[in-house]
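so my prof wants the structure for this chain in the tokens format not the other one, which i didnt know existed until like an hour ago. anyway here's the sequence
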Amino acid sequence: MNQGRIWTVVSPTVGLPLLIGSVAVTSLLVHWAIISHTAWYPAYWEGKGRAAHAAIEAPAPAVASLTGQAVVASK
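here's what i got, hopefully its the right format
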């Protein structure tokens, strides 16, 4: 073990639950961030496919060309 002497400072009965708990909390925070900051993930959980994802996306913004006419940017 690379850092085996850590257990002479921190008891494994305290250190291992703290390590496993911190991994679990970090995982939950990452999942919460994905759910709360994306529009497609809640729709995915509800069973909606790509069609629902396409409906969520905003239309492409119009870009003014050199002639002064608006041109819609395509993906």
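also thought this was worth mentioning. The chain has one domain: 4-72.
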